[in-house]
């Protein structure tokens, strides 16, 4: 991090109150820009606080990504779909130090890519996110509440505050100096995010390595950006993976007995040539085991990043695949889900009650957020929920999925 970059970023922060982050959990993060923001916002006495919006907040355990901004006291409020890689968010929720709103990740992906940041949809209706229930505010006793959603007839209207600044990543440069927009390995619809931001009058900053790329997929003129920053290699990584992920293929996924038992149940459940959407948790290793041991039953498995590939990355690497490709952008995969064009969803199940309702946003005292679970479970007609043996709750106070007898629902216990 250079003093010149910090100074340039400090100038860009003038007049900024709300910031969008184009990210995907621990897999994709504009890490250099986040570090510059943290450094440049210090005024000699305290850090300036901002509101942040992201479909999936970037993080890496207790350090990196959005954790950096929390540690530096840069966060006034946050709206996001998934918080699972941001460990420090739970401390903030417990002590009410920042205002935290959770919305479905697909809804967030749509809103971040369009100029009008308002959307009416049935996604979230009947869940804890419904304004008729708990609503999007997680720390409900927090004062100074944002208005993020409201009921409109039989739908929910989600509305994001307009942002003043958007942080994005590029892959490099063309020989003529254009910025190559990052679409590989995950296409986060960054070009859409940029153009919608510029239409609203927001500033756009990009971190892009000083690397020449031939035959790029998407490029933008540098004139479209208010700031272009060349990141150090260590702050422009693709994915947050333990070193073991890069050593042997079989280390890409868990080998626990529960996942093997679930894979056997899925073998009878999955039909030939189905298109699956696979959720985080036990479904990932179970699908990997099934694909490796039953090659005579081909199927196509997507994750909510829009990627498909040979082996789905487990744990912190969720969203990426071994030998994978970005078959669909994040906006496109959620649109495909909403349209009912996915045959079968294989999802984890956190808490389950006697009425077959499920809650996944919080396990114990740790809040993860719903991610894409609500978008998927309310849109796909064939659902398989995978979980370890556990006691059922009598009645869940918060529900991420309300059992719908019109869907083809099966529970598989590992």
UniProtKB/TrEMBL annotation:
Assigned keywords, A-Z? Transferase
Q: What SUPFAM superfamilies does the database record attribute to this sequence? A: NagB/RpiA/CoA transferase-like
Top-level division of the source organism's lineage: Bacteria
Entry keyword Translocase: no
Q: Which GO terms describe its molecular function?
A: transferase activity
Transferase found in the keyword field: yes
This chain belongs to the protein called: Propionate CoA-transferase
Organism of origin is Vibrio ouci
Q: What is the lineage of its organism?
A: Bacteria, Pseudomonadati, Pseudomonadota, Gammaproteobacteria, Vibrionales
């Amino acid at each position: 991090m250079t003093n010149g970059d910090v100074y340039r970023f400090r100038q860009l922060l003038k007049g900024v109150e709300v910031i969008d982050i184009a990210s995907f959990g621990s897999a994709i993060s504009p890490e250099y820009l986040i570090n510059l923001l943290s450094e440049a916002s210090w005024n000699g006495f305290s850090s300036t606080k901002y509101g942040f919006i992201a479909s999936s907040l970037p993080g890496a355990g207790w350090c990196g990504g959005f954790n950096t901004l929390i540690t530096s006291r840069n966060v006034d409020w946050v709206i996001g779909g998934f918080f699972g890689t941001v460990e420090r968010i739970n401390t903030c929720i417990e002590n009410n130090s920042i205002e935290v709103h959770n919305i479905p990740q697909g809804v967030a992906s749509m809103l971040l890519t369009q100029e009008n940041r308002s959307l009416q949809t049935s996604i979230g209706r009947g869940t804890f996110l419904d304004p008729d229930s708990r609503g999007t505010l997680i720390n409900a006793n927090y004062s100074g509440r944002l208005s993020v959603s409201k009921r409109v007839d039989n739908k929910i209207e989600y509305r994001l505050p307009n942002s003043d600044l958007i942080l994005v990543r590029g892959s490099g440069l063309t020989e003529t100096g254009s910025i190559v927009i990052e679409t590989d390995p995950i296409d986060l619809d960054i070009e859409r995010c940029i153009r919608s931001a510029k239409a609203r009058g927001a500033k756009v900053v990009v971190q892009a390595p000083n690397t020449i790329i031939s035959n790029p997929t998407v490029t933008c003129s540098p004139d479209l950006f208010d700031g272009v920053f060349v990141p150090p290699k260590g702050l422009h990584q693709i994915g947050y993976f333990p070193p073991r992920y890069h050593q042997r293929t079989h280390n890409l996924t868990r080998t626990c007995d529960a996942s093997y038992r679930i894979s056997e149940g899925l073998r009878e459940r999955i039909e030939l040539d189905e298109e699956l959407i696979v959720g985080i948790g036990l479904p990932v290793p179970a699908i990997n085991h099934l694909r490796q041991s039953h090659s005579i039953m081909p199927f196509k498995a997507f994750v909510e990043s829009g990627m498909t590939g040979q082996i789905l990355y487990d744990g912190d690497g969720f969203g990426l695949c071994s030998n994978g490709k970005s078959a669909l952008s994040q906006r496109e995969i959620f649109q495909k889900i909403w349209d009912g064009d996915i045959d079968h969803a294989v999802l984890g199940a956190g808490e389950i009650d006697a009425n077959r309702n499920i809650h996944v946003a919080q396990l114990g005292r740790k809040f993860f957020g719903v991610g894409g679970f609500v978008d998927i479970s309310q849109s796909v007609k064939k659902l398989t929920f995978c979980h370890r043996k556990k006691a059922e709750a009598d009645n869940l106070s918060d529900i991420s999925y309300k059992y719908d007898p019109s869907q083809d629902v099966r529970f598989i216990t590992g």
